[in-house]
Hints:
Layout: E1 2-3, E2 6-7, E3 10-12, E4 16-20, E5 30-35, E6 50-54, H1 58-63, E7 73-77, E8 82-83, E9 88-89, E10 98-100, E11 102-108, H2 117-123, E12 124-131, E13 134-135, H3 136-142, H4 146-149, E14 155-162, E15 171-176, E16 179-185, H5 193-201, E17 211-213, E18 221-223, E19 228-233, E20 237-243
Parallel strand pairs: 6-17, 8-14, 9-20
Antiparallel strand pairs: 1-2, 3-4, 4-5, 6-7, 10-13, 10-18, 11-12, 11-17, 12-14, 15-16, 15-19, 19-20
Helix pairs in contact: 2-5
Amino acid sequence: MFHDEDVRYGLADEGSVTLISDEPFAAWEPEAVVPLGHAQLLPPTIPTKVVCVGINYREHAREMGHSLPDEPVIFLKPPTSVVGPHGQIRIPDRLEAVDYEAELAAVIGRRTHRVSPIDAQKSILGFTCANDVTSRELQRKDGQWTRAKGFDTFCPLGPWIETDVDPRDLLVESYVNGELRQRARTSDMIFDVFTLVSFISHVMTLLPGDVVLTGTPSGVGPMRRGDVVEVRIEGVGSLVNHVA
Length: 244
């Protein structure tokens, strides 16, 4: 968060933020309390990497014409794609078909390497909302997903990290200009959150602050310049971004 020309981590509640002395991934002490309305929320983490999962909701797999995968399909977004709540999603001039994808995101709290699904629960600091913005035309043209999903601002995260929620049966929704576009529960995932973190940790080491995007439900579709896109996740919060 940004407050009084200072960028700090803090603990937010309904009306205030308690500033803390260090990152939430380290030992910290509470410091000053400021009104939530006096702070500008920034991305809740700046990860070394964003690990994403494709085709992880049953209805979305059917929507995209894919069979159900035998193991998670993973890809990466760069840290430079991250933008915070109320930040702009900037669509490059040459792109037209750019889609929203509402997702539950897990934020890693400690170094995670080759853990079991049970131990993966201990590795997660908490959860936030994400929008896996995607250029559908480049995804088709390139035959892989790096460029289509890697532009600056193509990974909105926020509004904060919720540390007290069970991710296994949460309602995930997206809205464009107030109109409902996606609605599903995380219980429809093919691979649950803890299985995903475990699987990824056997491929690459996850570091504190890294983010795992867990897939999107059916109902993905285009965003236009001037639209307002919202991702709502039960028990986590609401992430709102403008498209520019």
